[in-house]
C-alpha cells in the first residue's frame, strides 16, 4: 500500500477526528477491499514567495500566475490561457472554488455515511473508499462551472452592482470523471420509495461569514436528479482526485451549478421531506427586481456561454491574419453554432467548430481575422444550442450575480 504524503496541515487532524466511525455495511459485500488508497500529487511546498507562483489561503496546488488569478480563498483559471489545453482541462489548470480551505484527507481513513428517514433501515450506512471502488464504475465528461462565473461582467458590461467573488470567465473547467453512480450507492444503502431530497455535505471546515457559522458546505439535491446522472467521483482525468478538487470523493452533478458538486463528501442525509440549507435559501437563488419577491427557486441548471481565449485588452497587428480561438458551452443542450463579430456586432459570421458538440462538454472554435484599420475594437461571440437557446445581449440581473449568459464584449486594440 502506498504511503500518502504526511500533510503538515492542521485541518487534516481536525477532519480525520470528525470522520464517522465504520458500522453497518448496508448490503455491501463485507470482504475487505484490496485497493491501495490513492495519493494525489503532493501538496505544493517550498519557499512561501516563489516568483510567478501565487498563493491562495487554503489551496494546496501550485498556482502559477500565467494560469490563475487568486480571488480570496478561490483560484480562477485564466480563460485567455486555455488555448494550449485540449477539450479536457488538466487538473493543474482547473479553477478552485473553496468556501474555506482544502482539507488534506487520506482515502484509507475516509468513510461516506448515509443517514435519515429516507432509508429503510433508518440507521446510518457507511461505505469505505475500498467498498466504493468495488462497485461498478462509470466514466463521463462533465463541466464544472460556478454559478457566479462571469459575475464581474454584470458590473463591467451592464453597469449593475452584484455581490460575491468577482469572477471573470475562468470559473469553469471540463474533466473526465470516474466514479460510482450515486443511484447505485443509494439503492445499496436502502433508499425508501418516498425519499425526495438528499443533503450531501463536505468535510471541509464550517463556513463562517460576518460572524455567522453556517456549518459545513451542503446543498439539497433532489432524488430525481441523483438517480439521473450524478456520480461519486474518485478520479479526474485518469488520476486520483486531487486534494483541491475533493479528494478522495466528490459529487459530480452534470449540467448543474458547481455548488451542487460537493467536494470532500462526508455524509448524505436522505429525507422523505424537502430539505434546505443556507446554500439553497440565502445563496444560489435569484434575488432582485426581475425575480419573485423572496427570491426564485434554488437555481439548478447552468446556462450557456462563449468566450475568446485572448486577454481583455490584447493588442493585435493590423494587416495580418490572426486565428481567433475560443470555447462555447451550454448546460441546456449541445452547442449548435457559434457566431462571431469583429466589429462590435454590426456583422456576424460563423466560427469553425473543432469538437463534436455534446451535452455537458464544451466546443473549441476558431475564426480567422485580418484587421484592416487600427484602433479599439470590440470582439463578440454568441453561442446557440440545439434547443434554440441563444446568448442574449444582456443577462437578467440578480443581486448575487449568478448565471451570467450575455454575449461578452471583448475589448482589443489593433495597432
Ligand atoms: N464542496 C465543498 N465541500 N466545499 C466547497 O467550498 N464549493 C462548491 C463546489 N463544492 C465547495 C464544494 C462550488 S461553489 C463550486 S463552483 C465547485 O465545488 C468548484 O469545484 P472545484 O473547486 O473542483 O473547481
Automatic annotation (TrEMBL):
Domain named Oxidoreductase molybdopterin-binding is located at 99-279
Q: Which keywords does this Swiss-Prot/TrEMBL entry list?
A: Metal-binding, Molybdenum, Oxidoreductase, Signal
Signal peptide residues are: 1-36
Q: Which GO terms describe its molecular function?
A: heme binding; molybdenum ion binding; molybdopterin cofactor binding; sulfite oxidase activity
Pfam families from the xrefs?
Mo-co_dimer, Oxidored_molyb
Q: Which SUPFAM superfamilies match?
A: E set domains, Oxidoreductase molybdopterin-binding domain
Q: By its UniProt entry, which InterPro entries does this protein fall under? A: Ig_E-set, MoCF_OxRdtse_dimer, Mopterin_OxRdtase_euk, OxRdtase_Mopterin-bd_dom, OxRdtase_Mopterin-bd_sf, TAT_signal
> Per the record's keyword annotation, is Oxidoreductase included, yes or no?
yes
The prosthetic group or cofactor this protein requires is:
Mo-molybdopterin
Q: Name all Moybdenum cofactor oxidoreductase dimerisation domain ranges.
A: 323-412
Any single biological process term in GO: sulfur compound metabolic process
Carries keyword Nucleus?
Answer: no
Which protein is depicted? Sulfite oxidase
Q: Which organism is it from?
A: Streptomyces venezuelae (strain ATCC 10712 / CBS 650.69 / DSM 40230 / JCM 4526 / NBRC 13096 / PD 04745)
